[in-house]
Amino acid sequence: MILIVFSLAVAGNAQTFRGTINGTVTDPSGGSVPNATVKATEITTGIDHTTTTTSEGAFAFQDIPLGFYKVTVTATGFPTYTVDKVQVVAGTIYTLQVNLKLAQATTTVEVSAAAIALDTATQTQNMTISSDIVQDLPLNGRDFTQLIATAPGYGGYSVGGFGSLNGTRPNQINWQIDGVDNNDFWHNIPAVNQGGVSGIAGIVLPIDSIDEFSAQTQSGPEAGRNAGGTVNLVTKSGGNIFHGSAYYYNRNEFYSAKSPFFSPTTANPKAPPLRNENYGFSLGGPIIKNRTFYFLSYEKQQYIIGLSGIATEPSDAWITRATDLLNNPGGNKYGSYAPVTPSSLSATLIGPTGFWPRSGTGSIAGLPPTLNKR
Fold first, then answer.
1. Between the chain's N and C termini, which has fewer beta carbons within 10 Å?
2. Which residue among 176, 210, 237 closes a domain?
3. What residues have CB less than 8 Å from 311, skipping those under 6 apart?
């Protein structure tokens, strides 16, 4: 019930499930602008991604880490064009249409990303939940699988399943963490956070380590596996600013009403214990500013539950007889009763009482010498 998440982000080599920014750059007449320099700067880490436009004025940043970006376009004879706060989410393509104007002086054109059309290049329907919303949503047991209930087309929880998307079966959801398979191949449910003892997950994914939760339907062929939809969790990474959290939750029978099914007795005067302790922390920040970062998350859940019931215990006489049988397995401890009725052939081997008779030398009486030597 313990999971430690540690991620080390290095420029150009971060392991995340990513998104894409593409677009075209045109002049006032609508003609393409080739060889323009396009730079996408991730605001949190300060890492730059740079490319140039093609002869048709097109550019693309494929598979870049999630987050908010500042996109800057510079071209000879045109003022600098800047689009701020372009959000990249998992599995989504953002298209920017950059229209440059002729420069009359040293100017910079700034555009808000709020007016940008989202993912017009594919038919994928993508619902995303940011880390801030994840923290605000009530999650029983801090279970991330409950976030799927916010997705359009969700069909509700079912027995032994986590609900369905778009009318498919509950086991037709492809669960991923950072784009990596998170499916139990036997039950076809999330491998991380699936129920362990008394319904408590064997491995807990800390909620504070989730940067983004996304549920995709009508996914492309790269998603593969299941037709219902792809649910992907993207874990956090560090940035240029130190950030962290700490928490402690405690559910105790002292604060709860007694069960109406519990009846106090002399042997059990108090109600069975019911305690659920959940605590952890997260910490992230820079190692080398604008280059290397770290993020650490820890969570533990302790669950104690007492079950009352009636059980049958062996009597002293039963224990004595069982002990004698264990100490003397070759003797007849059944009195005048034998466990088997020997036939004329077996009587020679096992004796009239149904047990193997023993000779003084340790051999079995009645067997030929060749069998006693084995």
1. C
2. 237
3. none
